[in-house]
Each structure stands twice: as C-alpha cells, then as structure tokens.
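Q: For a teaching handout, I want to show students what a protein-ligand complex looks like in token form. Below are the inputs, and the small molecule is iron/sulfur cluster. Please produce the holo structure.
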Amino acid sequence: MKWSYSDSNCFFQCRRLYYLSSVLANSISKDPLRKRAYFVKNSMNFDMWAGHIVDKFISKILIPAINDGLEINFDEYAALAVEIGKKQFDFSANKLYESSNKTEGDIEYCVLDIHELNKPYDESEIGKVYEKVRLAILNFPKIKMFNTNVSLYQHLCNNKDWLMPDITNTGFAIDNINVFPQIDLRVSGATFIDWKVSQSQISDYSRQLSIIGLVAYENRKKRNQTGENPRKIDYDHISLFEVNLIKGTIKQHSFNENIANNVYDHIFLNSRDISLIRQKDDKPSYVTMIKYEQTEGHGCSLCKFYELCTHLTNSKHNYDEAAYFKSLTDEFANTLHD
Ligand code: SF4
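A: Here is the structure, written as tokens, with iron/sulfur cluster included.
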C-alpha cells in the first residue's frame, strides 16, 4: 500500500475526500470522471499557487544554477520567477492540462481552481501572487543558515556538488507500506530543506519533515544491511530545515528516536484504518464511493471537491460532464447530501 502525508490528511478530513482524491483521481485513465477528479485534486487556490511557482522555480532553475556555479542576480531571478508564474497562468487559463503532454513535474504545468472550478476572483489577487513570488526569491539570499552567520545561499554554494532538488523517488517500505514523500532539497548527507511561503503563524510542518527524516534513517539502515558504505546510524545526524521564504526564516525541526517512533506509529495506524475501508481491488463506482462516509459540516464549503462530490452524490455516481460543468457555472451549487 502506498501511503502519503497528503492522503493521510485527506482521510482524517473526510473519508469521501480520500475516495475522490486517492481512489478515484487518475491521470492516465481514459475514464473522463477519473481524469476530472485528477484535475480537481491538482487544482490550486492563489496561496497554493504562489508556493507552487516558488517550488518549481527553485528546483528547476535556481538550484541547477547554483549547481553550475553561475553568478546569480536575485533581482533578475525574481523577475524570471514571475515570468514563469505568468506562463503557468496561461497554461491553466487555456486548460492545457487537459490535453498537454506536460506533467506535474514540468515547470509550466499548473491547474488553478479559478479555471478548473470556475471560482470567481479579482484580478488584483493575481498581482498579489506575483508579488509574493518576487518577495520569496528576493528574500532567498538574506536568509542565514540556522544558528550561524553564513547565508543559506552561501551554504548551498559551498555544497553545490551535492544538491539534489525535488526528490520523489526515494522512500522506504515497511510491512508492505510504501512511503515516498516529496523532498524539496537534499543539501548533503542527511540535511534536508523544505521550502514554504505560508504567512500563517499556526502552520506546523513537523510531522511532514519527520517523514523525510525517516526516509534518511531507513535508507541508511538499508545500506548498512546490504553492506554498501556502512556507517553508524544516528538520529542526530539527520537535519531537517523548514525555510519560510516570505518570513525570511529558517527553522530546524527536531528528530530523535521518540519522534521517529511516533511517526512510524502514525503511519501504521493510519494505513490500517485506510486498509479497513479500502480493498485492493476497489473499482471506483457508486458502491465503492458509499463505503467512504461523507463529512457533514463546514469542511464541505472549503473543499475543492465540493461540486464533484455533490454531482456524484446526487447522480448516484453517474457522471455527466455537461451537467457537472453546468453546476460549476451555476451561482449556487446543488444542495449537498440530499
Ligand atoms: S464536499 Fe464534503 S463530503 Fe464531499 S469530499 Fe468534500 S468534505 Fe467530503
């Protein structure tokens, strides 16, 4: 079973949300419903989009430039990041994600909820996203490495031969549970960075970072077992940093045996709860959908699957794309959970 932090969050939020986003959504399916669910799953509001532009810019342009030892003018790079944001906007506005060969890994790939879900918006909000992106890139060279006077940028330049951005194919498996988190940047050895552009004071990313710590720990353990470059495994050697590019801050997340065991427990218990509902051969259908209980309450009004969930519930899973699209343009969506 594949387990991810975001699937787990969906599962806690609402079982039906988990169904729509993790069982139904499929990028390569020929079934129009499964494809639509995939686009909805990937759709972003403006806050998420700002983070997405910054993530993509750092992994595809800035880190490779540092790796190549290029002289970086951050004013020019900030302008370039905004240009990429504009390309992403056009990509989404023209709904190229429906037909293009580009995938989530491409720098221009973008699905905005204003286009996919027809959300109303004010033009000024787009300008605010570009301003946030610009600020994030301009802040980059000002951030100091944790508890030192060395800038983060200088630290990355000093480790330029080891930088590995956007890792998605490294993880671990325990008891048939596969965990492959997205890792923003591996600096060197067991030092990892996660980029954030959230302005929230209450966001807590400690569990998300700890999962990356587990990947480092499990991989070292595996290499020791296979005799490949054996070294002592020590939780203290794993450094997990959250860099907030809007606040200009860097925070180190603790990682020790206790934290690691708590995260293992969380993964085991959550996977067990999911597997109690989800069968290996689950076929997305009405019968399957109703096994996943829907959540009543205010969560629905904020849910990106609201319209699709309503449509499938009311139509007993007989997806009618024209009717679904119409529901997106109606001022008031149908009443959910009749
Ligand atoms: S709209 Fe409500 S019930 Fe449906 S998936 Fe979202 S949170 Fe769950």
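A: Two things your students might notice: Residues 14, 16-17, 20, 294-295, 299-300, 303, 305-306, 309 surround iron/sulfur cluster (CB under 6 Å). The chain has 14 helices and eight strands.
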